[in-house]
C-alpha cells in the first residue's frame, strides 16, 4: 500500500499483526496467519490424497504418501526449490508433476488434479486470508477518514492531515478489532488479476 499511495499509507504496518511492514511475502508469513496457512496446506494434502484414491485402481496396491513431496509443503522461503508459497502464487513444481507421473496417470488426469488443487488453494487463500486482510484495511481506512477520492487524488491535491497523530489509534485498532466482525467487504475474486481502480472502489488495491 505504501508504494501505491505513500502520501496516505506511509508508516503503516501489516494490518493483521501490526508488527512489521506489509510485503507480499509477509502476507503469507505473518505470524497471525500461520495457523490459517498451515490449515490450508494440510487440507490441500488431504485433497491430493483423495483425488489420487479416486483415480488410481485399488488393485494396484499403490502407496501414495503425499508427504514425500517435501518441497511442495514447505513454507520456508527458498532460492533452490518451489514451495507452498510459490504454489499459492501459481507456480507448479516440476517435482509434483514427476511424482504424479509415477502412478501411470493419463496426462488429462494429472492436469485435472493440478487444476483442482490450484482452484482449492485459490479459494481458501481468498476467503481465509485475503478477504479478511482487505476488510481490516477498509475498516482502518474508515476509522482514519481515508476515502476513495483521497486514494485517487494526486499527492499535492490531497487535503493534508497528520496521520502520525493517529498512531495511537492504529495501535488500539490492532489490539481490539475482531476480525470475525469484519467479514463484509470484498466479495469477488481479485487475488489473481482484476482492475486496480475497480478494486479500490470497493475495498483496497491489489498488491
Q: Which key features would you list for this structure?
A:
disordered C terminus, mainly alpha, 207 residues, 53% helix, 10 helices, single chain
Descriptive report:
- The protein is mainly alpha-helical.
- It has one domain (6-202).
- It has 10 helices and no strands.
- The longest helix is centred in the middle third of the chain and has 38 residues, at 107-144.
- It is elongated and about 60 Å long.
Outline the low-pLDDT stretches.
158-170, 176-207
Oligomerization state: single chain
Largest sheet: none
Q: Write down the Rg.
A: 21 Å
Secondary-structure content class: mainly alpha
Taking the alpha carbons of the first and last residues, their distance comes to 7 Å
Instruction: Name the average pLDDT.
Output: 75
- The total domain count is 1
Number of helices: 10
Order of helices and strands: HHHHHHHHHH
Helicity level, as a percent range? 40-55%
Quick structural gist:
The chain is mostly helical and 207 residues long.
Topology of this structure?
Blueprint: H1 6-9, H2 24-29, H3 34-55, H4 70-73, H5 84-89, H6 94-101, H7 107-144, H8 148-152, H9 167-176, H10 196-202
Helix pairs in contact: 3-7
Amino acid at each position: 500500500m505504501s508504494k501505491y499511495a505513500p502520501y496516505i499509507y506511509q508508516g503503516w504496518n501489516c494490518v493483521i499483526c501490526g508488527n512489521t511492514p506489509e510485503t507480499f511475502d509477509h502476507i503469507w508469513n505473518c505470524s497471525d496467519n500461520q495457523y490459517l496457512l498451515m490449515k490450508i496446506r494440510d487440507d490441500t494434502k488431504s485433497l491430493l490424497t483423495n483425488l489420487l484414491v479416486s483415480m488410481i485402481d485399488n488393485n494396484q496396491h499403490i502407496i501414495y504418501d503425499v508427504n514425500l513431496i517435501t518441497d511442495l509443503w514447505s513454507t520456508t522461503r527458498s532460492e533452490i526449490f518451489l514451495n507452498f508459497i510459490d504454489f499459492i502464487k501459481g507456480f507448479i513444481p516440476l517435482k509434483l508433476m514427476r511424482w504424479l507421473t509415477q502412478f501411470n496417470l493419463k496426462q488429462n488426469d494429472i492436469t485435472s488434479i493440478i487444476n483442482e488443487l490450484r482452484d482449492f488453494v485459490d479459494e481458501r487463500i481468498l476467503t481465509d486470508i485475503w478477504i479478511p486482510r482487505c476488510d481490516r484495511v477498509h475498516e482502518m481506512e474508515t476509522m482514519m477518514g481515508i476515502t476513495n477520492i483521497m486514494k485517487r487524488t494526486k499527492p499535492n491535491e490531497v487535503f493534508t492531515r497528520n496521520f502520525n497523530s493517529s498512531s495511537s489509534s492504529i495501535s488500539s485498532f490492532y489490539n481490539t478489532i475482531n476480525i470475525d466482525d469484519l467479514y463484509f467487504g470484498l466479495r469477488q475474486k481479485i487475488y489473481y488479476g482484476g482492475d486496480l481502480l475497480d478494486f479500490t472502489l470497493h475495498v483496497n488495491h491489489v498488491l
